[in-house]
Diguanylate cyclase
Amino acid sequence: MVNKSLQDSSLPLWPEAAQTLLALMHAQGEVARLSEREQLFSALLVSVNAVLWAFDWESRRVLYVSPAYERIFGRSAGLLLSDYNHWRDSIYPDDLDYAERSLAEVLVKGAVEDREYRIIAADGQVRWLSDKCFINRQAEPGQPVIIVGIAEDITDKKQMETELQRLATTDVLTQSSNRRHFFECAHREFQQARHQGTPLAFLLLDIDDFKVINDSYGHQEGDNVLQRIAESGRAALRRGDVFGRVGGEEFAAVFPGCAPDMAMQVAERLQREIQRLSFSHGDQTFGITVSQGLTSLTAEDESVDSLFARADAAMYKAKHQGKNRIICG
């Protein structure tokens, strides 16, 4: 039999013990939930392929950087947290001034979301980052100014943009500028020459008897001729000259800052390069010639179209005078 006095004396203690036990169980549950949240948050940070960071503006100290930093930059997060200059040193030299100026703009704008710059990873690879940053506007006066940001690796996107731009502006067969891109560049050079009062020359080139080449040796050999002409153009023209394929067997060039006598020297050099070309088809070999029309900017020219028209007329004049020559118009 249980001692009644002992049983009676212990009764008041049961509610308190139960409450304490329930409190402990609740606390353990909260700890478990917090631990689960922390593990989930850590797992998310590891899986996100972007660098989350926090920066103390006054002390120039990186307060936090997510695990993706070491994957993208290939550098130690610990070294960055100890010295902000590790971030600066990783930025591509040509982009450093912009990266620092755009970071400072967040102090005025509150947020800067269009920052794009390059970094040099530890393996020497150049990567593009899109680095958005925001200022902590909730900080009370006297509190540190904290900038937070997210830096995403957009290297693949940039490479795709570059390739799309190349495809949009390049003649696929000859790897020269296509007609649209050539005339865009020619128009720009025309406007600049007009504005600066500098000379400009325009050249139009057509392969002589190109149809005979296609008919005699096939279109594959004709494509080879076009490719070799483009190579000759790149070899003979000066740095800064614009060269492109503007028709089936027609190429054109613009010579910025080139006086008429110098333009003729460039055209003659191109003519010689093309005359040296030799082609083989089975047991046959053959060469090619071109007819060129050359003209220069005058005070009366209002657009690049007038130069193109004169060069075109001069080129056909070269055809009618026996081909394989340069005529000035």
About this structure: Residues 1-14 have pLDDT under 50 and may be disordered.
